[in-house]
């Protein structure tokens, strides 16, 4: 009996290691970006029927798990509110150090409102650099103005 | 007597409102990016002597405050570990929802290590879009491999 | 020197008590709803120039405070993450008890996405009832579907 | 051996996915609203004997589980005090941003007291809108005045 | 300028010590119980105009403070979520040790619902006892049944 | 193997539902109050040998569990420091809203010291009331004066 | 205006440094132990009138402060729930490492109940030792048996 | 497979209840104090080979568990940072109420440094008293001066 | 099915106790330092294929576990944000007591930036000393200057 | 009136910026290491009379402040239990990532006990390196074995 999506995430993560799959391969198999696909496989997005069935074959999941992949999960992928993992912490630190700056500059350009985390996409690329390659990340989120009424 | 950098930050923020300055103007005055300049003015970066003096004039700061702008501040710009402000929270949410994805994809491309938050830059731009303009943010951080020894 | 919006909020709250004003009067003075106006006066929304000047007269605020009313504030009106005030706690309790239900029913009707708290309005009314009058609240938020990419 | 209600909730959630049921169907089966029924199935309300037996058939639950459905559960449906799921967080954010406003306006209209979260009902509906459909939620709670003595 | 009720609470507490008043005297002056009166003076209840004026004279408060006493305060009288003071902690401990018992016995007698903390009164008395006097506290709260709909 | 009292509590709670027992019946079986008996069965008190054996028969517990009922448990019956369950939360709220009042009035009557939560008893009764029945709770705790030395 | 005991504590601590007093001298001046006296001066105990007046002269306190010394304070002398100061932390660590042991051994000797922290005294002495002097602390608390009823 | 010391602790605690052993007997079996022995059995100290084997026989532990008893455990015996159990809480309360006093008096006698919790021993005894027996605890810790360099 | 690295860590820790291995032996077997090897075995570093296979033989791990050893783990080896274990707490205390000092001195010597915890190594040695041997730890981290842009 | 050491720390920090002093100069003035001196000036150590007077002249402190420098402070230099400043956080991260490793290796070499943070010294040096200079830190702490008794 599967009673929550995180059990399916564990099955996927376990199969990925056993079968030495790469997230880019997984993404290609369903024709979506590697960022959205990985987030979905890690329990943060819902898949449509065709995608779920393709993933089910790739990861050799039982039918019940394939059904779960189409259910909207309870989101949030971190075990603690301040992440302990150094790679993820650096992102938390960016929000902490630059958070007030981001707020000021978006408001200066757009007025009161937010950058959407829902109508949102992300692209992560290697940027070659003679002084050491860089991780280049492009975040794109729709600006949503606060409604006054 | 000024005994911590946050008193200077308050003076700057207060002067900016009183004098209706924009962060982009402030950045131009010292010839740096709007992102780094704003972060510095909000108490997250240290300025060199010339920058500090220019800012001192712009914001009409006392000499003691100009000295403080050259001191490395205790960083972290948020009052709570989970931010309450909706704009900043959306960024925290991104780290929460996409954190494990970012980790997986950077490790898949680069191996064990992190994306630096120190050798780092950020660029925030308006991206016109007929369905509603978007906030476009480019983050660039050097990849730092974990040393094995 | 005013260095943050909460000082202005204190001035407003203090003046409101001293002058025995009602929030509905305040809202009428600027021609907006009582909900949005009160939220703005309590430091959760930004006003335009005309609104800020009207409020400045009503609450007898200094010019510097009127400038601050036009700045987007750092939002979040509660002193603790779990509110202690019984009236506000009941709302927190609703989110706690009904949170998973709201999630299930919105996803069942709309698919993956959220109910916006930005493109949002709220209307609070007294609903007469012989067994004891009721508080009737209508919340309206745009549905925002999660983007897949 | 079932030793707490959450085990029954897991059985229900698991059966719902396996059998592709909808909450509206579940609600119809017992003749109650979709909001109250879903909350009950997710472990936040107690059912009477007839309701519990109907649900037992629908979800193919063992007799012990049907007995548990009639027991008042330990309520609270969120795993953390600040919810990480974006849909539920938006509601937490509403309480945070509008909490003090709600408090002010209810007190202005009714005096000291609270809006009951017990003598309470909720109705969630889709509101068609050319600019994007909206989620419309009506909350109705009895006003309870503070007793002075 | 008084900008929150807690400033008035401090004035009252300070005057009470300076003038060696007793809470029972204060309660008599406004003709209410000592429990409700003390809670009000400590910033947990709102007074009507006559009560506020009587208290204003007793504690020699300025007019602005008397206006504040008629405003519903932001409630919650403890500085930390788990109280450090030994006397108050014992009550927290009672809730912790007996909380599940209270829940079970009220549900067994009344069904699903709560004991109101709003339509509520409390009476604290000394109960002479040869083995050492006891504190006797009677709590009376209306039972509010959960509404099903 | 039973390695902590909470396993026995789960056995008892499970048996109580399966066998439709009431706490008042359980209390009668051992000749103690319903409050103390329930607290004991929920893992907050230790039973003597005769009581434990009677309970063992009533709940059909194994011998090992009967031995555990005679061991003093690690007390505290709530899963979080601020309880999420609405019924129990109302009690936490009473401590929060009335905590400072209780402290003031006990000190005014008795001087420095506490109301014992150990030499303590509680009695919960239904109090019929035409406006809605009330929960009446009598708490009795020995006053313990702070020792000065 | 003094509005809480901690202001008096600051006056005492400040005067003690300015006048180079020792706690043992302070204790002698009122004829009590150094442990109880220090706790009282640090805002954890209430003094009687004679003691308060003696301390008032010793620390040159205003009359209002002397009145406050006779009021039972809100107790708890640590700024965080886990103390950061190394000396005090070692005591917290003792409770953490030995807490379950203390519980087991007191219950084994006395049955269910507690060691009182109210009917309690403490004596701190230097114990000479050739391998390095030791701090010797004797704690004496009345055993209070849990009441069964 | 045993993968952490706490599994061994559970075996010991379970065997102790099953076999009705007392901690004083356990301590005698290895010739150490009851305080240190109990702490060790509860997973706070490491035993030598002979002690571990004796305990293994007494509690009928498997060989793997006996090996684990000789490994230094991850210490800390409380499930929450503020303990909920009333007996242990009283000790936490002592640290909270008397913490600053202990700090002041040790520094007054010894200068800057700490009382060791490592080079430490504890002795718990019953002290007969006509007004009710007392728990007498002697704590002895080496004073360690802060090194200046 | 292995679904996270911590299951492998448990297998390693369990095998190490069963087979009485030492970390220095484990380190020698793969030709790396004892510090990095231990961190890796405890789930904080990723191994290459050859290292993982050697460790697999040494600890008699299944193939699936060997695959997991080559995956970058979610790092962070402590169960609570403030560690309870006395040895590890002393290190936390160092950061707490000396943290601001370390910050000041590194900035004084190097300017704004950090000491890397990624391009980092650590060496732990016994330093004989007639007054008691000392633990000598050398930490070496690359200085990374904050980028200004 | 100075009522706690942190006021003196603010005076020192303020004077250091105003007078452009360096910590190495401060250390030389009292003939102690830069690490211990800085920690002391930042409120973590107590100075002797001669040191305090020298520092008083250097920082132009009032006599009352010089008296406070000789008092043992309440230690702990970080405003939050998990530090937000990136430089200090890296040290917290080291404890988190390497904490269990440090524990294992010290126990393997020394047996049960701790590395003292009291009988402790620290030396921070620049280590030139063609690939980027490194921060080299040597920590030396006496090993303290756990006493068994």
UniProtKB/TrEMBL annotation, chains A, B, C, D, E, F, G, H, I, J:
SMART domains hit by this protein: Cyanate_lyase
Residues in Cyanate lyase C-terminal domain copies: 77-149
Keywords: Lyase
Highest taxon of the lineage: Bacteria
This enzyme's EC code(s): 4.2.1.104
Xref: InterPro entries: Cyanase, Cyanate_lyase_C, Cyanate_lyase_C_sf, CYNS_N, Lambda_DNA-bd_dom_sf
Family: Belongs to the cyanase family.
Protein name in the entry: Cyanate hydratase
